[in-house]
Amino acid sequence: MNKYIKAFSEDHVGVIQLDRPNVLNALNREMVTEIVSQLQSFENNEDIRVIVIRGNELAFAAGADIDEMRDASPLDLELLNPFAEWDKISLIKKPILAAVNGFALGGGFELALHCDVILAAEDAKFGFPEVKLGVLPGAGGTQFLTKAMGTRKALEWIWLGEQMTANEALKYGVINRVVAKELVVEETMRLAFQLVEQPPISLRLIKEAVYAARDLPLQEGKNLERKNFYLAFASEDQKEGMQAFIDKRPPTFKGR
Ligand code: CO8
């Protein structure tokens, strides 16, 4: 039974709602474990094709739980290895969309950056305030933000620890879309339902290839894309997609 999140599904979309409203969804370790376990459960559920992570109206998540971290020693952290849990998010092959209302700060911003697509409310606030706590992002923030906006801008934001508006985040290529705050969840679900109609094997092969473009040298990325292209021809959905084109009818994809 989850204590800090709610999980449900709607028409092949698995939804994780962060639910620790009294502390703006601050992420303690147990909550991160619940999120990751639920992601894995959706990943293993054939009925789920797309995953959405959302918060509430005030916050996606205002960071890691400062109370929990405050007295940690370096050895506690080394032995707890808290970020190993976060690494598991990057192993999820289904599309993960983030719907951000309110604050996405510190670990909350990092959770959004672990998602493939980010939609945000006009008044959403992103940022890494860790510098003001005498630390720095630890769950991949320096890496994700730099890959998204480039070295100079990332340094400026992370050094100053200031909050970025949704429009600034959009301008720097950190998020996908800005929408009216009352429509964030609706728009994210709409995008999720569009993805549900796409062939799931293609979606996962595309996800792997696009991250290869971010993380690998060009030729290695091209080689991986090529192998994934060949692999797509093992699927029934490739046969269906091409046959439907020839038959001039819409395809029905099965995920096989
Ligand atoms: N941790 C614990 N409690 C929090 C956190 C947090 N990150 N954020 C908010 N809260 C609590 C507040 O203490 C407050 O509790 P209470 O009502 O009991 O006093 C409640 O949430 C509401 O917050 P505020 O009263 O402060 O609300 P405001 O609207 O005035 O301010 C802010 C909202 C600006 C978001 C403010 O709460 C704030 O600055 N929060 C902290 C933001 C922050 O520094 N985040 C970074 C944390 S460090 C981090 O994320 C490192 C990531 C590495 C991953 C670590 C994995 C182990």
UniProtKB/TrEMBL annotation:
SUPFAM superfamilies given in the database record: ClpP/crotonase
Keywords: Lyase
Domain of life per record: Bacteria
GO molecular-function terms, A-Z: hydro-lyase activity
Protein family according to the UniProt entry: Belongs to the enoyl-CoA hydratase/isomerase family.
Protein name from the UniProt record: Enoyl-CoA hydratase
The keyword Lyase belongs to this UniProt entry's keyword annotation: yes
Gene source species: Ornithinibacillus halotolerans
GO biological process entries: fatty acid beta-oxidation
Pfam families (UniProt xref): ECH_1 (PF00378)
